[in-house]
């Protein structure tokens, strides 16, 4: 064989090998599929509240796959059970990255859980996108951890929203606070203090650990402060326990609840175990539609939600707000995948995730816009306030600012 011909063949082979390596550089993407991973509490005491998040995501991706996928690729979403235990979250995330070789981690749940795996994922340059947390750490440390982006509005800003409302409507209120002893609860409490801006008065606080069996001791201590307002910066199970404990003590406080516990299931359980008057007047905030509200019967997003749940989520509780939440997040994930291009890489996905603007996500409250940039990892700067009455959450006022 002539030297020039041989050299030409070697050059072609080298270029082909390099091109192939470039295409195959990032795991989790094949000509027919995109593999995403996540952790969720599929078992354990918190599973009733968080397992629907995983099932809802799988339902939405099944819907997307049935309609052509993303540029012809089907989404393969793999979920590892972490029982809401950060140690298991670490183990499960490593399994997804190292064994399953996922393209990205999507919407895993829990503040401490996501903080625990954040260094590993950023060191590995694996996108950790739209996670179920709103801690200040995710927004303020974006330059240190550029591969991580939350999805929930800022907990601190949400707490400040309630503080501003109390300061405006009840400036002489005596406020007691139950909060989770982690970044989530502490951010909410700090935000509340900022929003009060010297008005009203926080007369007592009590924290809880996830391992606490009930909230009776905390609520008894808070009632002793003679507070007339009780802020519950807690997860759904603990909110239910707090309501029940207060009811048993005869404490009729004005309740404020963080958005993570706004699921109608929570209020239904409380009302069924006490009385409907117990929950009336409670205030919270949301960025999501309550898609099963009869008043949204003609809403396109609500109809799409119910259609997806009926077709792709057999046995799921259509009333669980966790499903609405994760359908919104999955919509955003698919949006990011589309903007990552027809031949996506982890880098192009991360680039897409930091250049989003969604004004038509069908599962969001009217007027709420999702927007990101390389300098702003806070997807949501807006929420709407809700008051519980007549057995349902009712929006009041306009879109409120929750910019961190």
Characteristics:
four-stranded parallel β-sheet, disordered N terminus, globular, 404 residues, alpha/beta
Could you explain how this protein is built, in words?
The chain is an alpha/beta fold and 404 residues long. Helices cover 44% and strands 19% of the residues. The protein has helices at residues 3-23, 47-66, 86-99, 111-123, 136-140, 155-169, 183-196, 216-223, 236-248, 264-273, 276-279, 300-312, 321-339, 346-353, and strands spanning 33-40, 74-81, 104-106, 128-131, 148-150, 174-180, 201-208, 229-233, 254-257, 283-286, 357-358, 370-371, 382-389, 392-401. The strands form four sheets. A five-stranded parallel sheet has the order 2-1-3-4-5, sandwiched between helices. Strands 7-6-8-9 form a four-stranded parallel sheet, sandwiched between helices. The radius of gyration is 23 Å and the shape is globular. Mean pLDDT is 92; it is low at 2-23.
């Amino acid at each position: 064989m002539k030297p020039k011909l041989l050299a030409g063949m070697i050059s072609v082979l080298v270029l082909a090998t390099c091109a192939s390596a470039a295409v195959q550089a990032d795991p989790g993407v094949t000509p027919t599929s995109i593999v995403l991973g996540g952790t969720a509490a599929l078992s354990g005491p918190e599973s009733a509240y968080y397992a629907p998040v995983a099932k809802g995501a799988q339902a939405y991706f099944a819907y997307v796959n049935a309609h052509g996928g993303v540029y012809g690729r089907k989404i393969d979403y793999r979920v590892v059970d972490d029982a809401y235990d950060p140690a298991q979250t670490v183990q499960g995330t490593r399994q997804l990255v190292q064994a399953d070789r996922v393209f990205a981690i999507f919407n895993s749940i829990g503040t401490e859980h996501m903080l625990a795996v954040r260094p590993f994922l950023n060191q590995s340059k694996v996108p950790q996108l739209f996670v179920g947390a709103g801690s200040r750490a995710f927004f303020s440390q974006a330059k240190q951890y550029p591969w991580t982006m939350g999805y929930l509005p800022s907990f601190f800003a949400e707490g400040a929203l309630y503080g501003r409302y109390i300061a405006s409507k009840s400036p002489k209120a005596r406020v007691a606070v139950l909060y989770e002893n982690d970044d989530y609860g502490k951010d909410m409490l700090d935000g509340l203090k900022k929003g009060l801006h010297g008005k009203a008065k926080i007369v007592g606080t009590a924290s809880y650990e996830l391992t606490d069996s009930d909230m009776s001791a905390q609520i008894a201590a808070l009632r002793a402060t003679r507070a007339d307002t009780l802020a519950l910066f807690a997860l759904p199970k603990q909110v239910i326990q707090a309501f029940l404990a207060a009811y048993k003590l005869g404490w009729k406080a004005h309740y404020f609840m963080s958005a993570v516990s706004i699921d109608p299931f929570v209020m239904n359980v409380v009302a069924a175990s006490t009385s409907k008057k117990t929950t009336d007047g409670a205030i919270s905030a949301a960025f999501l539609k309550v898609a099963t509200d009869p008043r949204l019967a003609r809403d396109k997003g609500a109809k799409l939600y119910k259609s997806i749940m009926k077709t792709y989520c057999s046995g799921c509780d259509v009333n669980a707000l966790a499903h609405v939440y994760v359908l919104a997040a999955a919509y955003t994930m698919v949006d990011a995948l589309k903007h990552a291009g027809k031949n996506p890489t982890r880098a192009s996905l991360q680039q897409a995730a930091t250049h989003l603007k969604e004004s038509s996500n069908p599962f969001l409250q009217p007027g709420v816009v999702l927007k990101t940039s390389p300098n702003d990892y806070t997807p949501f700067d807006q929420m709407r306030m809700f008051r519980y009455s007549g057995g349902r959450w009712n929006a009041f006022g306009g879109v409120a600012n929750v910019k961190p």
